[in-house]
Specification:
4 copies of one chain form a homotetramer. By secondary structure, chain A is of the alpha/beta class. The first copy, chain A, has 11 helices and 10 strands.
């Protein structure tokens, strides 16, 4: 299992009530160093304009090398600038739509330059807020067309679409695993797939493991994984395992069984917490589950699933929760 | 707009605490007569074993004719018998799976006999309840195979898959519009599509109109509509319009714009209410919206959607809520 | 910790789609014997009319004695009979309201007879379904008056009010911990308190431990605990610990710290599962947590709570999840 | 009905992804003028430090007078400064707790100075995020003590507690109507009550009208109303009536019936919308309902509620939705 983190998770984080953020912003080098200090982490994800630009790419690349990290993905910024406020790929303004594509292409070029094969697209502003406000058909067409253009131009780069049911819009166009898979299929290129963010999947009401199975079995379209935890109602971006346990065991079992070979990447918002500690905690949690998934552990889980008997499933997980009794 | 109702909605309805049901069960003829008395209703949906069997098909057909109704669909009973308790199409027992297919074929034969072109599949027991209990990949394969077998055998009948995120299982395999569309696509036959039940869609966190647009634009796969209302958290099966208004206006606008030509069918559980009154209320609500969707009304809505301006969208709907001010 | 179960959990369970229930109904003696076989269980809760009536009270009492069990509580049946369909304590029909009180008094007499000091009231039909349907003020008054009458008549019996936000009504009058506490306070008698059902609390969006703290600190009003698990959206009545873990640790820590001395009672609906196994699993889960709550464990938790540092809280729970690493 | 708005709603609004905000910030005078231009609005609510400080109080007072507005309430800022990041009244740091009280007292002094009798407390940072992180008992004690101190010092000012189940913390201490009422009761002073924010109430799973009835009947503790709309899952702060209609009719009926005499104040976050238009829309929606609540309208609603028959309730609301049919 390859672990990575989104670099900005180590920085300052704000919300709509405290726009200054709850902390101070460390330097890029400090964040990169902190990432490298988390045992098991070998990659970072970089957000365009926040972390990486054509101007600073060499410098960031050198810093990553210095600290022994690789770039896991580049995420074009389609969400944190005023120009995207009413949509990026789906803005009613064709100039904005062109800029959204351009930002994607810049991200792909940066990825190539950094020796990274993955561009993660989360166009958070592409959605709508109110009833009677959206032309769903037109919006989908615009998204598909833009992604196809970018993915055709960079056949060596994988473009992975990260869905989320809501926030910052009350409704996102790429909302759930299956509708985003349909969109990827409509693009019709082998280098376009889907990212599961565990928190987004929980908010979508999905079973995370089932989403992973669906994406994998439909043409091997699970390209990337983001990890965090929440209370199922909102994308709280918490430490993994701080709320849920059993379902992460199920997810990691299925990822292994499905031969998922991508990154296990942390994507959190430790608003008030020590960021490095919060990210380290998540990695340790996943490592803890991974240690259960020995050949024997995998076989045990395969066995309880094959029986489909909830009493036995619950007994198995209890034997892991309370091993010493 | 063609209105129909699920015949059983006029009967007794129970829940897990009051298994006798809240009312008394009327005769089949009484229910059929009551259906015919609701102005606008021209069709009924019949549930296998509850309403219609090979044994009583002629009798029911005659009653429908007597009261001037047609059969809108036949729904095989894959949910209300003990044998389906751990799944119908996805039971671990191959004998049960075979029976689930057989029940589907009987429904198709009944539909044919009644001059009805639609079989609505809601395999409510096909899902799972607990983590570490389900083999998602195997289950999907079984569902696809069974539906393909039935649909191939009855190319003159449309098979429409009704999704629902949960209940009676905590997770259904056919859970949301997009994953059910993927399943229909995997079957690969033109006579397999998807039913939107408005309550199921609300519980799934979908925007109902967006689901309709997605299904229609992906190969014209919106085959059928079930109507009811709820509080978004559970399939309360209430009178349409008793809780929500604006989103039903949006849905009916899109159905008209997308040239949906199927039934507008009521699917409710009026546990404690006068059933005929509850169904009539739903039809009247939809008729009320339909009356807004004149060419002028359609053009107005098209206009506010094209602008994407929530202030104007809300103003338009207010002008309908308070027309006399 | 004293463990009990609701006897009916060992019987047949149905839902609105499968009114016959998923299983067969065992005899009373079989259920009582099965309860006694679950290690740690020393009490059962008995539902009026289902399990216990004035007619069979001696027989049931003898059976309990034979199997070494005591009666943990009696629950009057205010939910499973047609007459309660539109409310028990809050029916618009004064005759029904009188019967609801009478049923409560019979339960208190049965409790006394069985040497049990607790009557658990869950008036599930007391609520409403639709907007513009309920007179909230009148309903609360009726509930308070009836409970006061019963509690005055039986000062030796504790009456504990079990809240639940919804089901079978879309809205219950006793919906959440705090509004039910207010109702108990309005009654104004020391023998009226509140039951937390963990699943109801999760559906209410509460933190279960916080609800326990609130009820205890407001006049020691936490009288009883029902345990089960769910996915937070609906009262799925699953095996405890099958979905959640951390929050049950927090709850049991607080119950111990707050000196809760009542029953830890299982209240589940193992629709499709071996009931005895499902209940045994829940008890074993709670026993597993209890074993963590040694003086050392209590002190550790007290310490992480005192710091209020989520990184440390999550690290502590990880040390329990993965003790061998 | 007296209408007001929170002044800052007319300004720039940001979220965690777009910290610069979606718009530009207008001047104070522009916002005050815009407020005065919304027909029916006669008051504004002012947030401490954002809108009003001891330094600018005279200037703001003069501007309000110039535009014919009064101060509806002052809201101390307990949420948008780094120092409150881990709690204001419930910070583990006693110096911060003292500052939270001080901020409350400043707000009360400003209110007095502006001739306004209401201080609205929304201590958004007072809550917790993770399991095993909070001492619920201690936190409640601190809140009660601080509010008692402030309310005792300003007996001429009403202090109204605004609850919200979550955000910015995953759990707020003042979460729902009933628990906040309990807190107000614990303070034990007549000038401490509760604010219902309609969006917070919807997210809490409450029926807004029932919450209003509960607060009023328990000692006339409904002091203030904030209006906005959402999809029930999150505090989307949308235009009132853009999603829901029926439940706002029920709420306004009950407010009138309960003789609520406070403000009807708009509290929205029109991130991407023309703010004045969004606020005007909300006021117009409430005015539209108010126009229904003639003596005849009130009597009709009283009648359908008295019958408790959902078919009739739904028919009545349909007669308002579609008056011309």
């Amino acid at each position: 299992m390859k672990y990575s983190i989104i670099l900005g998770n180590l920085g300052n984080t704000c919300d709509r009530f405290l726009s200054s953020g709850y902390k101070d912003q460390p330097s890029k080098e400090t964040m990169i160093q902190q990432a490298s200090e988390i045992q098991g982490v070998t990659g970072v994800e970089l957000v365009g304009t926040w972390d990486i630009t054509p101007q600073n790419a060499d410098e960031i690349g050198a810093l990553l090398q210095k600290y022994g990290l690789v770039t896991a993905s580049v995420l074009p910024d389609h969400f944190s600038q005023k120009r995207w406020g009413r949509g990026a790929f789906t803005s009613l303004d064709p100039a904005i739509r062109a800029q959204a594509l351009e930002e994607t292409i810049i991200a792909a070029e940066l990825a190539r330059k950094l020796g990274c094969g993955l561009v993660n697209l989360w166009p958070g502003q592409d959605g709508y807020d109110y009833p009677l406000q959206a032309d769903f058909v037109q919006a989908r067409t615009w998204i598909v067309d833009a992604i196809r253009t970018a993915a055709k131009a960079f056949p060596d780069i994988k473009f992975t679409l990260e869905y989320k049911p809501k926030e910052p819009r009350t409704h996102s166009y790429m909302a759930r695993a299956a509708d985003t898979l349909l969109l990827a299929q409509e693009v019709g290129l082998p280098n376009v797939g889907v990212t599961i963010d565990t928190g987004h999947s929980l908010v979508a009401g999905e079973n995370m493991a089932e989403a992973a199975a669906l994406l994998t079995k439909s043409g091997n379209k699970l390209f990337h994984m983001h990890f965090n935890d929440n209370y199922r109602f909102w994308d709280d971006d918490m430490i993994v395992g701080s709320v849920h346990f059993v379902e992460f065991v199920e997810l990691l079992y299925w990822l292994k069984k499905l031969n998922y070979s991508g990154w296990y990447s942390m994507d959190q918002y430790p608003y008030r917490e020590d960021a490095q500690g919060a990210l380290r905690g998540s990695v340790e949690f996943l490592q803890g589950i991974d240690a259960m998934l020995t050949p024997k552990g995998m076989e045990e889980i395969r066995g309880v699933i094959a029986e489909g008997d909830a009493v036995k499933s619950a007994a198995w997980i209890r034997s892991k929760m309370f091993p010493l009794r």
